Each structure stands twice: as structure tokens, then as C-alpha cells.
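Objective 1b: paired records.
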Amino acid sequence: IMLNSLPSPTPHDLPKRVQQFDILPDSALMNVHEISLLSGKSTATLWRDVQDGRLPEPHKIGPKSPRWRVDAVRNFLSGNA
């Protein structure tokens, strides 16, 4: 199967937190997969953005649970990071 032949997700297919991004409080936390859906970038590209300083380092809420504050994600998505 060709990846390009797969339908792109409709808004109803997106996780509720991604659908409601505009109304989330600045202090809410997001994971890399949610940011990937919002930005259209792969998770690998997002980690390169962290390395290059375009996306801030995440908060570690567990050993394998990096999270970003919504205000940092908004700045990143607007290009103000």
C-alpha cells in the first residue's frame, strides 16, 4: 500500500486535545505525538527542532514521558520560539 494513497485524517479522527488546542490553558501539557499532529512534522523532526533550539526542551514527567507546555507549543507553531 502506498502511504500517499491513505486518506488524511479528518478533524473527527484527531484526538480531542488536538481538536481543542485553541482553548487549552497555557499550562496544559502536550506530548510529542500531539505536537506532530498540530505541526504536520514527524516526531523525529520535532526532536531535531529541540536540538536546534526551535522547540524548547520538554518537561520530564516520567522516564519516558516528555511533555511541553501549551504556551511553548503555541510559540513554536507561530515561529516565535
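Objective 1b, second protein:
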Amino acid sequence: MQNFPQRSFWLVGDSGEQDPEAYGRVALACRDIPDREPIRIFIRTIEGANNTEERFLAAFEGLDPESWTLFGDPAELQDRVIRAA
């Protein structure tokens, strides 16, 4: 990501394991790269996983709230991706 600061990176994962926390760390590490395009994070909330607001706020602390999106149904993602582009 450091080698391609002008490219957009979208990280897509789920809430089943550690994707939110890992992606949050990556986005935080990259935000200080000069001319770095913001990283977008999309997390699918999996039934039975820890989907608490506290978890996601902690995972994405320090990031612009517009940089991450939660979704339950993949069909929801299509509309959000079009708006984010």
C-alpha cells in the first residue's frame, strides 16, 4: 500500500474473527503515508459473532467514520460500494 499511494484499497471481510481489528490497524498505519488515498473497509456482520457497537468503535478508533461500513446482506454492499466510489 505504501508503494501505491494513489491507488484505492478496499478491504472486505467479516465479523466472524479478527477482520475488523486487523483492517483497522492497517488503515491506521496507512493514513500517514503522504498522498495516500483513504482505505475503505467493509465488514459483513455474521450471525453469532460479536457485533457490538463497542467492538467496531474500538476496531476503527481514529478512523474517519465514513471510511468503514458494516453490512449484513451482500446485496446491501452493492449500493454502498456504488456510493463510495
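The chain has a mean pLDDT of 89. The radius of gyration is 13 Å.
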